[in-house]
Structure formats: structure tokens, C-alpha cells
Amino acid sequence: MEVILLKDVKGKGKKGTVIKVNAGYAKNFLIPNKVAIVATSGALNIKDKIDLNNAKNFELEKQKSQKIAKKIESIELKFELKNNNGKLFGHISAKQIIAQFLNHNIKIKKTDIIPNKIDSLGKTTLTIQLPAGVKATAKTFTKGI
Q: Less Cβ around it within 10 Å: N or C end of the chain?
């Protein structure tokens, strides 16, 4: 029996895939637990439309992320860090980095920043992970005070 998975099933497949399973497994477990539906022609047509819509949404999100990436790569963030004869006191945290990006109207999350802190003086680069798999490289400059 062919079914369309509504959720990821370990060892069987990911959400949205069509798989072949035993009729008993489908009727007694997958369908009653709303993990899958029977792969009828109508259900397959709906699945195809959903897949096409998801692909379009992904492409729009990717284009939006690429515009944000260009904006990120065109700016240089500037920070000040206390130091005493080369010994640094503290670091620039992800919260401070996010605040700098907000000054440029760019919203990112703490988990998007790699590395998530700056603990050295001079020029540093950060990788920003944006939606749709787009990555941007941010330039920073930290001077001692």
C-alpha cells in the first residue's frame, strides 16, 4: 500500500514522501495516528501542488536572504573593547553584534552568528547564517580603549 507521510517517520521517510508499506502497518498505525494518508490520485495532486508552492516560497526566501547578505557584506561593524597593555577585558557578545546589525535595519538571531563573540582586537570576520541556506560574511573592527 502506498501512503504519503504527514510527519517524519524514523526508518521510513521524511514528511511529504510517498512510501510503500504493508497494509496492516498503514491501517493500524500510520493512518489512525495521522502520520500518513493513503496515496490516492487526488492526494498525490494536492501533494504536488503543495510541493510546487513550497519550492516557490523557498526561492522567494532565498532571494530575500541574498539581498540581506549583500547588505551585510557591504558594512563594517565597529566595536570598542577595554584593554590594558594588550590584555583584554571581556569580549564583544552576540547581543552587542545583534544591536549593531539592528542599527543597519538587519534582524538576525544569536544562533545565526558564527563565532558568536569577538575576543580580539583588529579586524575579524563573522559568518551569518541566513534562511534558505544563504551565508554572509560580516566584517568587524574592534579597537582598544
A: C
- 2-62: which CATH topology? Ribosomal Protein L9; domain 1 (3.40.5)
pLDDT in tens, 1-48: 999 998 888 888 888 889 999 999 999 999 999 999 998 888 888 888
| Architecture of the domain defined by 71-144 | Roll (3.10)
Domain positions in the chain are: 2-62, 71-144
Strands (E), 42-108: 76-81, 83-84, 87-88, 92-93
User: Do 2-62 and 71-144 show the same overall fold?
Assistant: no
- Give the pLDDT mean for 128-140: 90
Lowest mean pLDDT among 70-79, 90-99, 112-121: 112-121
Q: Enumerate residues 6+ apart whose C-beta is below 8 A from 58.
A: 132
